[in-house]
Amino acid sequence: MNRSPLFASVRYFVSMRVLAGKWSGKNLMSPSGRVRPTTEATRDTWMRLLVDDLEGARVLELFAGSGAVGIEAISRGAVSCDFVENSPAALHALKANLASLRAGKRTRIFKKDAIKFVERIDKIAYDVALADPPYGSKKLDRIVRQWLKVPFSKILAFEHAPDHDLKVGGQHRKVGDSVITVLRVSKVK
User: Fold this and answer.
1) What is the pLDDT of residues 138-173, one digit of tens each?
2) pTM flag (> 0.70)
3) Annotated domain spans of the chain
4) CA angle, 80 as apex, 55 and 128 as ends, to 5°?
5) Superfamily (CATH H level) for 5-184
6) Fewer CB within 10 Å of terminal CB in the chain, N or C?
């Protein structure tokens, strides 16, 4: 394991890998503790639902955690990804993952609350937004409400528990213990 200062304060374990694209097979770090990394099957389904939308896309990953979903999007053709995360342990893993892939020029990290971040966006600023908030919280409801009020991306795709009823349309795909929902702006302003 790398013993650089970036790794000094947080214990890591390799639990994931990039599944497809230019970084296929590269290992990703995830912080130990109370983190629910998106499974490989869920990430793959997520990317397959967005396959026609990723080439050249500007992506936003909210509640980024280790950044695995946004990294997968870049690996499969997105031009850039902004990551929003405020957990110190997750930020360490995210920074380590981006450094190991040398993805710095295509990414930005915002150490902010995801809800406050999107509330400050007043128009479509991204092609695709990805969100995977903690299960059981109402954070996803607030993100979806804000997107419906002021779309901050052309597409909002999010992971949630099957029993989390958001009462929104869109495309839904169940994968194991999760559901991926994809909403699209019908008319771009």
Assistant:
1) 999 999 999 999 999 999 999 999 999 888 999 999
2) yes
3) 5-184
4) 65
5) Vaccinia Virus protein VP39 (3.40.50.150)
6) C
